[in-house]
Amino acid sequence: MGKFPIIVAIVVLVVGIISVAIFYMNDNVEIHEEISFESTELGIYKVNIQNFDYSPREVRIQRGESVVWTNKDSVGHTVTSSSGNEIDSPLLGLGQNYSKTFTEAGEYSYYCSPHPNMQGKVIVS
Ligand SMILES: [Cu+2]
Q1: Residues 6+ away with beta carbon under 8 Å from 88
Q2: How confident is the model at residue 5 (pLDDT cuts 50, 70, 90)?
Q3: Which residues have CB under 8 Å from 74's CB, separation 6+?
Q4: Where are the domains of the chain?
Q5: Distance 73 CA to ligand 1 centre (A)
Q6: Percent of the chain with pLDDT over 70
Q7: What span, in angstroms and rounded, lies between the C-alpha atoms of 67 and 46?
Q8: Are 71 and 92 spatial neighbours (Cβ–Cβ below 8 Å)?
Q9: Domain 45-124 architecture
Q10: Distance CA 106, CA 48 (A)
Q11: What is the pLDDT of residue 2?
């Protein structure tokens, strides 16, 4: 009977240590998730389509990163590959966007099909 409180104390101590360990492990997992979320955000490049122009006209990214084009004009525009068909947006109205993730290195030139003088480029390394 005399040993019973000691066993209870040891059990409480072990459970306490495990709880603290799990708490810190969960904390680390959360930090890793935040970092991966932020790096995903960093891998998204924004191009505005405004005043019949792409801004910026040239974007340099790494493989696996994405570009999002947003039309800020009331006139409809597209983002269309000059050669090949990697980039192929529908006609974008005001406020609409088109995104593309690039998995292979290369230079991707594009233009606006209703206004072919509008031209841009994505360089993927
Ligand atoms: Cu256009």
Answers
A1: 79, 80, 81
A2: confident
A3: 94
A4: 1-42, 45-124
A5: 9
A6: 68
A7: 6
A8: yes
A9: Sandwich (2.60)
A10: 22
A11: 60
C-alpha 119 to ligand 1 mean position (Å): 9
CA of 57 to the centre of ligand 1 (A): 13
Q: Are 89 and 117 in contact (CB under 8 A)?
A: no
Q: How many residues does the chain have?
A: 125
Give the distance (Å) from ligand 1 centre to CA of residue 71. 9
pLDDT at 42: 78
Which phi and psi angles does 90 have, rounded to 5°?
A: -75, 175
Residue 111's nearest CA partner among 86, 73, 78, 74 is: 78
How is residue 97 written in tokens? 């966007």
Sequence-distant (≥ 6) Cβ neighbours of residue 9 within 8 angstroms = none
Q: What is the pLDDT of residues 88-114, one digit of tens each?
A: 999 999 999 999 999 999 999 999 999
DSSP H helical ranges for the chain: 4-42
